Amino acid sequence: LLQVILSPIVDKRLGGVGTKKTRLIEDWQSILDTFLAECNSTLSQPGLIEQLKEEKFDVAFTEPTLDFCGPGLFYLLGIDKWAVVNSLAIVDGDFFYTQTPSNPSYIPSCAAMFGGQMGEQMTFIERISNLITFIVSSRYFQPHLAKYTELMRRIDPEMPETE
After folding, report:
1. How far apart are CA 67 and CA 79, in angstroms?
2. How many C-beta atoms surround the C-beta of residue 94 within 10 A?
3. Which band of pLDDT confidence, cut at 50, 70 and 90, is reported for residue 22?
4. Cα 142 from Cα 1, distance rounded (Å)
5. Helix H segments across the chain?
6. What family does this chain come from, according to its entry (predicted)?
7. Which of 14, 72, 110, 145 could pair with 163 in a Cys bridge, judged by C-beta atoms 3.0 to 4.6 Å apart?
8. Calpha distance 143→133 (Å, rounded)
9. Ramachandran sector of residue 66 (left: φ over 0; alpha: ψ -120 to 50; beta: rest)
10. Contact, 149 vs 142, CB < 8 A?
């Protein structure tokens, strides 16, 4: 059994969020853009894709918390069997991406949990608020997936849509 762990290749020129006085949405966009740049840096490593293709992996796993590079990489490597795993609460945008069913009528959205707004049993108003939070945060992440498709298509123009 051969196991290989590929960690993203961080290019120090990418920087980070870089400011202490920014708004929440701007922070999230900077974080998402940094993950995209990190994916680009990893995929741009000379010979990496070819080297990994030669391994002929049977299965792959990825943790996509805000980073949607894994499944595209698996497609580029020709790995048909792969799974998404999360070590944290699933981020609202990941429900769409992983096609995992969600039910915001009784499961607090990730954004609501981080904000400490919801308890174990939500009131009707909390459920409505949770649904709105879930929809807004999910819709925020979905357009970002198109950027990954565009990135992957630079390597393989036949890459299917990720959105």
Report:
1. 19
2. 23
3. very low
4. 36
5. 24-43, 48-55, 69-77, 92-98, 110-114, 124-153
6. Belongs to the UDP-glycosyltransferase family.
7. 145
8. 17
9. left
10. no
Q: How far apart are the first and last CA of the chain?
A: 33
Q: State the angle between helix axes of 24-43 and 48-55 in degrees (0 to 180), rounded to the nearest 10.
A: 70
Across the range 30-43, mean pLDDT stands at: 88
- Are 103 and 72 within 8 A, CB to CB? no
pLDDT in tens, 41-86: 989 999 999 999 999 999 998 887 667 888 889 999 999 998 888 7
Distances (CA, A) of 153 to 45, 65, 148: 16, 22, 8
**Nearest 5°: phi and psi at 59?**
-150, 155
- Cα 42 to the chain's mean position, in Å? 15
* Cβ–Cβ under 8 Å, residues 38 and 10: yes
In single-letter form, the type of residue at position 158 comes to E
Q: What is the pTM of this model?
A: 0.71
CB 95, CB 138: distance < 8 Å = yes
Q: What is the largest CA-CA distance in the chain?
A: 55
